[in-house]
Inverse folding.
């Protein structure tokens, strides 16, 4: 078990919690993390890029000049690739860029990122987020109390914690996600990863 300090919203140590070493204390597998992130970003590509080859370009149905006697190289159509306005040779065509990663690789990648965050001191655990109503001012005060106001922060909250989402969503450099949304790309793309103990337990249960 890995023992991690828990802070309150004032940035002071409130407790310590033991989390599974299988999730928060493994040796990060950098190769698998890279593979999963590349696959995730590849799936985001639309793949709609397209060009027209010589058969798709309109016009050029008539031979531009006679075959012999002009002193020029013979030409069959002005839509050949060597002509301005002609077709494109070996241009991109619409296709899927999707890559696949299996479930074990995805879980290993997330465990590796979480363990790396713990080792680098970039995982911040809070005891709770208790907003009575949405308040961007209170949210900004929490980020400042944690000393993260100048860092890119990823905040992970419970799926039904709408009030916290509304409070943090407009803060600069802070991106907020529900626990069910997180993946390797989200967990790694920040300078500080903030979550409550309850969310950490949810991830521990899902990744164990």
């Amino acid at each position: 078990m890995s023992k991690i300090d828990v802070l309150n919203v004032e940035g002071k140590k409130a407790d310590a919690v033991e989390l599974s070493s299988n999730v928060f204390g493994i040796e990060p597998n950098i190769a698998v993390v890279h593979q999963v992130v590349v696959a995730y970003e590849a799936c985001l590509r639309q793949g709609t890029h397209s060009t027209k080859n010589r058969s798709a370009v309109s016009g050029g149905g008539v031979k531009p000049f006679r075959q012999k006697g002009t002193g020029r190289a013979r030409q069959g159509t002005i839509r050949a690739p060597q002509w301005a306005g002609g077709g494109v040779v070996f241009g991109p065509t619409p296709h899927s860029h999707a890559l696949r990663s299996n479930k074990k690789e995805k879980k290993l990648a997330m465990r590796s990122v979480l363990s790396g965050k713990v080792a680098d001191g970039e995982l911040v655990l809070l005891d709770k987020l208790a907003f009575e109503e949405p308040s961007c001012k209170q949210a900004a005060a929490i980020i400042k109390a944690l000393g993260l106001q100048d860092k890119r922060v990823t905040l992970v909250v419970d799926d039904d914690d709408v009030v916290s989402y509304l409070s943090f969503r407009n803060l600069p450099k802070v991106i907020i996600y529900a626990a069910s949304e997180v993946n390797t790309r989200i967990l790694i793309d920040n300078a500080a990863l903030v979550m409550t103990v309850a969310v950490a337990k949810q991830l521990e249960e899902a990744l164990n």
